[in-house]
Design a protein that fits this description.
By secondary structure, the protein is an alpha+beta fold. It has two domains: about 80 residues, no CATH class; about 80 residues, no CATH class. The chain has five helices and four strands, in the order H-H-H-H-E-E-H-E-E. It has a four-stranded antiparallel sheet, with helices on both faces. Helix 1 runs antiparallel to helix 2 and helix 2 packs antiparallel against helix 3.
């Protein structure tokens, strides 16, 4: 089992980043600027060591151990070539986990919102930097993902008092689940 550590290490960093992104540390500037790259560098160092082991085990004709050791360098290489996509994948995973943990409190806030004749639109900002933050949008009309030209005037009026006015990117939750209907992962430009 000890000799198969590269397989476990290939899974550990993505799961660790998802767990950290589900915690309050996710929006901390030091974590974003220093923590994530440091963790990735440690992972890359382990990948280099696993590559050396893969070569040595290959020379000794220990094929199954060589293949097991080669997995980590390949995963690190793939993540490194698509670094931003990898980090966004982990961020989205962490946002989904955080949402699952906080969903009941968000639903309480939605229920507490005064009823209107129009569909409800609420923004839940997790926080972030001065120039960008992440969070969730609850939009009963589902207009948040429409092109601006297709959004109704009443929706834009409801959005005027939220982070949606300073620019945003929203996407539906991964998968199609009843409990995430009308919910969107969002990045705000403020």
């Amino acid at each position: 089992m000890k000799k198969l550590w590269p397989i476990w290490a290939s899974l550990t960093l993505p799961l660790l980043l998802i767990a950290l992104d589900a915690s309050p540390i996710a929006t901390n500037l030091i974590f974003v600027v220093i923590g994530i790259p440091t963790l990735f560098c440690i992972w890359a160092g382990l990948g280099i060591w696993a590559l050396v082991l893969a070569v040595l085990r290959g020379l000794r004709r220990q094929w199954s151990l060589a293949v097991a050791s080669a997995i980590l360098p390949l995963v690190v290489l793939a993540a490194g070539l698509r670094y931003l996509s990898f980090v966004h994948f982990c961020n989205d995973g962490g946002d989904v986990v955080y949402f699952m943990l906080e969903r009941s409190s968000y639903l309480d806030q939605i229920r507490a919102a005064p009823p209107h004749e129009e569909p409800r639109l609420l923004v839940f900002n997790r926080g972030g930097m001065l120039w960008a933050s992440r969070g969730y949008v609850y939009d009963e009309s589902d207009e948040v993902v429409l092109d601006k030209r297709l959004q109704s005037a009443s929706w834009r009026a409801r959005a005027d008092n939220t982070e949606l006015t300073c620019g945003y990117y929203a996407q539906p939750f991964p998968g199609h689940f009843r409990f995430t209907q009308h919910w969107y992962l969002a990045s705000f430009d403020c």
